[in-house]
Amino acid sequence: MLEFGIKDIIDIVLVALLLFYVYRLMKESGTISIFYGIMAFIFVWLVASEVFRMRLMGSILDKFMSIGLLILVILFQDQIKRFLVLLGSEKRWGFLRKLMRHHNSSEKSVEETAMPIVYACMSMAKSKTGALIVIQGEMPLESYAKTGDIIDAGINSRLIENIFFKNSPLHDGAMIISHNRIEAAGCILPVSHNDNIPRSLGLRHRSALGIAEQTDAMAIVISEETGRISIAYRGRLTGRVSSADLEQRLSEMLSGSTGPAAAPAAKPAV
Length: 270
What we know:
Blueprint: H1 6-28, H2 32-51, H3 55-75, H4 77-87, H5 94-100, H6 110-126, E1 131-135, H7 142-145, E2 149-154, H8 157-163, E3 174-178, E4 181-187, H9 203-214, E5 218-222, E6 229-233, E7 236-238, H10 243-255
Parallel strand pairs: 1-3
Antiparallel strand pairs: 1-5, 2-4, 3-4, 5-6, 6-7
């Protein structure tokens, strides 16, 4: 008779948590259908090899499983990298950092960082100035920042507006804000190939959704045609964002309290 103890319960709980985290990660990145396909394949493999003891079918599926891990690593290298970065992020191990350093009273508050961005976005929306601003999350964005010009300046609403001024050489690219500073501007972002994006939306919106699909960053888009503000976060694009909503989302993002449940359902960003 098989013994079932505490160790087995812990094993089942850990596997369940791992599957749930993988499910949530793939759902956010828009690859949830692949997750369902993988789970269906594993189910068929277990039934064929363990339940019905089909030697031929089991051996064939075993071969697929042996090379399947390598294929999954190649296909989902970005998601695996994101998983490892989040696992070692300072949000999860921040208490160790607090124990090793004293509180820095010179650090800017969330409001001091968020409000200049909100003011700049509202001003550019009023003048229908196209803009794309990316707020870094836990995942580093150095590789994207290197595609533009490094600025490393404090967050200032006038500076943001001047960068996205139509005659500015940096207005076509994206601005990256990291650690409460404007890190770079004129950056090139990955373009989303999501078929659900309305055709009326341009490259800025697709780039914003692209960076939101591949990282945990938040992207703010201002339409040059309509002046409307949209937010891309965790693989979702939310349109018609008001100043109050923008301030709330920025505050949550900068304070680190924005989670998967905080992202609202996508609205038509037209």
